[in-house]
């Protein structure tokens, strides 16, 4: 499942707002509990299939859910695990890596660690390119601007 895909035939509203780098997209309902269950299932299935980019994307979704509910340590742990297991140098995986770095920047900023937040936001531009790269880069730039404004 790419990082912003809806779960197949779940019967639940779209979970896209819980996993997109720049935040919710208009028109998406969101179901955090359902999203968490779907992401956990993807971690299991993708791990069994040897698809690390999908496992990383699912852990990223879990990290964003944790960040949304204020569980900063859990969000950071999940995002770091996703970053460690996400392949580099693949177009789609690089998009996931960029999104993970934005999430780590947001978690660090929320925890008051401005230096770590800056470092993570700046790393986004070093990854390369991927799906939605311009939107993800804009999210990183917005994070840096918000830090500068404080």
Task: Give the key terms.
mainly alpha; about 150 residues; disordered N terminus; Serine Threonine Protein Phosphatase 5, Tetratricopeptide repeat; globular
Strands, count = 0
Which stretches are low in confidence, meaning pLDDT under 50 for 5 or more residues running? 1-28
Subunit arrangement of the protein: single chain
Overall tally of structural domains: 1
Q: State the name of the first-level CATH class.
A: Mainly Alpha
Round the mean pLDDT to the nearest integer and report it. Answer: 84
Distance between the termini: 37 Å
Query: Strand-and-helix sequence, N→C?
Result: HHHHHH
**Alpha-carbon Rg, integer:** 14 Å
Shape: globular
At CATH level 2, the architecture is Alpha Horseshoe
Q: Structural class per helix/strand content?
A: mainly alpha
The helix tally amounts to 6
The proportion of residues forming helix, as a percent range, comes to 55-70%
CATH topology: Serine Threonine Protein Phosphatase 5, Tetratricopeptide repeat
How much of the sequence is in beta strands? under 5%
Could you give a short account of the major beta sheet?
Answer: none
